[in-house]
Amino acid sequence: MYFYAEMMGRIPCCDDNGLKKGPWTPEEDQKLIEHIQKHGHGSWRALPKAAGLNRCGKSCRLRWTNYLRPDIKRGKFSEEEEQIIINLHSVLGNKWSAIASNLPGRTDNEIKNFWNTHLKKKLLQMGIDPVTHRPRTDLNLLANLPQLLAAANYGNLMNPWVDSALRLQSDATQLAKVQLLHNLLQVLNTSTSPTPNMEAMNLFGTAPLREHQLYEFLRLNSQFEGLANGQVNFPLEGNQILSNLLNLEVPSDYQHTAISKEFTRHNDNNQLGTNSYVIPTANPPIPPLVSASPECSAVNQMENKINPNDMSNPSSTSTTFEAWGELMDDEGSDSYWKDIINQASSSPWPVTS
DNA sequence: AAGGTGACCAACCGCGCAACC
DNA sequence: TGGTTGCGCGGTTGGTCACCT
């Protein structure tokens, strides 16, 4: 084998050379454990021979690091661990080893498996894209508000860091709904097209909607005060909300409601380098909801999430908002939203007026 | 009871990278 | 400096089990 290596360069670790593959037997485990306890693993390539195992070094290393290591924590993942994984994954992506380094006793392989079999599905059910950790942008999202509710209320908040991250996630979910509707209005009210999008008009009623209608709609359908304490209440089913949206009357004496004030949390010049999100308080032209922010490194993003100040200030900035800002900036063109509306116009929602 | 199906997870595979010679 | 080696990583596979029809 080593002669082969010298002559031909690197050889496959587990080539078809008579070495055993597949599940480990208790005897093999025992041999590996005893050898490592006595001598350490040293060179993994040399270990199997020294330990009397008919395995390749790589197989031994994997068996040790993923299963036999004494500090391995077996058993179900706690809710706290789940949240940590989700949060870290949103920052680190599929860097399983990096994620594992933050979860003592858990291996990258275990976390990877757990992610693929549980957490990915869970996030999808919540309407969150498990790759981007952004709310999914299709309008089916609105038809899945019960799941969004579950997302907003998910978890028993034990860890303050987790608490903060979850709260931000809830805010982001709520903001996403507002942003979605806001952009829909922008498209519907746009005058760039010589002919209005008739399908979209049919979807939302006859007259272009105005923003105060949107706010009234939001006031009727949600309790945004909840944003201050992380509780999100969106009590109506998606089709009912849409129905309410269609049935809105235009109050002639419309005044800015507490909602718009609640949402008008803006930092005029971003002196602190923080984000802000601003619900417009005037009729068109409609300003952007999400202001751009200085780019943050992954490390900074992590620090932001860990920063205890965030925990006492749920309206403070977050990478979630940044993500939404990017999303909306990237995809906020009229054509993008028109596409969504076109999709929605063929959706199975019951549109009653 | 038997076959089908999906979930779960241990293990394998191939690649990239850093250390070494 | 280029080739070799060892290791670690992320993606994938395949075996097992539980549940369903």
UniProtKB/TrEMBL annotation:
The entry's keywords: DNA-binding, Nucleus, Repeat
SMART domains, per the entry: SANT
InterPro entries (alphabetical): Homeodomain-like_sf (IPR009057), Myb_dom (IPR017930), Myb_TF_plants (IPR015495), SANT/Myb (IPR001005)
Domain HTH myb-type: 16-68, 69-123
Gene3D superfamilies hit by this protein: Homeodomain-like (1.10.10.60)
A GO-annotated cellular component: nucleus
UniProt KW Repeat keyword: yes
Domain of life: Eukaryota
Subcellular location: Nucleus
All residue ranges annotated as the Myb-like domain in the record: 16-68, 69-119
Protein name as annotated: Transcription factor MYB39
Native source species: Liquidambar formosana (Formosan gum)
